Automatic annotation (TrEMBL):
It holds the Pfam family Cytidylate_kin. This is Cytidylate kinase. Belongs to the cytidylate kinase family. Type 1 subfamily. PANTHER family: CYTIDYLATE KINASE, CYTIDYLATE KINASE/PANTOATE-BETA-ALANINE LIGASE. It is found in: Cytoplasm. ATP binds at G11, P12, A13, A14, S15, G16, K17, S18, T19. The keyword ATP-binding applies. InterPro entries: Cytidylate_kin, Cytidylate_kinase_dom, P-loop_NTPase. One of its GO terms (biological process) is nucleobase-containing small molecule interconversion. The keyword Kinase applies. Residues 7-224 form the Cytidylate kinase domain. GO terms for cellular component: cytosol.
């Protein structure tokens, strides 16, 4: 079986992209790269340093300057990786509600996307990578040999986020999560630059009622069938 060198996974919030991506990368001994972290880090930087995300020119300038690093975890607090912004640990800051509320606006700025896409391509083109996001199969790495569009119903996805927050001991309101997630998905899929959508040659998987391991098995089966 020939394993595709670049695997792109796109899909809406909490569809399971990072969970499935990490498991798949581990099975294949590939690098896992979550592009959402970069947009979240720029959003956090803008909120901290500019106190708002409305000024496209200034936010773009920030995106072009900041150094975002993702490294193996140094703390056992549930994190999958350490996320550093100019050397500072922002792993949990980028998961805060104010980042959720502003990240779509930041991600819609053309200059921000150009800066992020350039870095993502550099990593992707080295190969042996599972890259996850919104526009990997359509814009960042359209040459990917395997493209997955991972989806699940909005209710299922909101339930997953709700459970995650509860397990971390944080306050969670299901209806609010559902509402915020629907808004973010709508914004992401209707923006002008690199909107969230399935590439024409993507394989669609709906993960309602399927565990992350189950989705990985399905992807490995697709690889077996397509690349035998
Ligand atoms: O984890 P979740 O699916 O909730 O979000 P994420 O993957 O961390 O992405 C956060 C936000 O970054 C998305 O809502 C998009 O606005 C943006 N994003 C993007 O525009 N393009 C990507 N390739 C990845 C994320
Ligand atoms: O990266 P993305 O935002 O697409 O989703 P995620 O963070 O990988 O997954 C969101 C939550 O759903 C995690 O807590 C996963 O364990 C869970 N999940 C699930 O219950 N069933 C799946 N098939 C995939 C993920």
């Amino acid at each position: 079986m020939i394993i595709p060198s670049i695997i792109a996974i796109d899909g809406p919030a909490a569809s399971g992209k990072s969970t499935v991506g990490v498991l798949l990368a581990n099975r294949l001994n590939y690098l896992f790269f979550d592009t959402g972290i970069m947009y979240r880090a720029v959003t956090w930087a803008a909120l901290q340093r500019l106190h708002a995300v409305d000024d496209e020119v200034r936010v773009t300038g920030l995106a072009e300057q900041v150094q975002i690093d993702v490294q193996p975890p140094t703390r056992a607090d549930g994190r999958q990786a350490d996320v550093l912004l100019d050397g500072l640990d922002i792993t949990w800051n980028i998961r805060r509600p104010e980042v959720d509320a502003n990240v779509s606006q930041v991600s819609a700025y053309r200059g921000v996307r150009t800066a992020m896409t350039k870095q993502q391509r550099r990593v992707g083109q080295r190969g042996q990578v599972v890259m996850v996001g919104r526009d990997i199969g359509t814009v960042v790495l359209p040459e990917a040999e395997l493209k997955i569009y991972l989806d699940a119903s909005a209710e299922e996805r909101a339930r997953r986020r709700f459970e995650e927050l509860r397990q971390r001991g944080e306050a969670a309101d299901y209806e609010k999560i559902l509402d915020a997630m629907k808004k973010r998905d709508k914004f992401d899929s209707t923006r002008e630059v690199a909107p969230l959508r399935a590439a024409e040659d993507a394989v669609r998987i709906c993960s309602d009622g399927i565990s992350a391991e189950g989705v990985v098995d399905r992807i490995l089966e697709i690889i077996r069938i397509q690349h035998e």
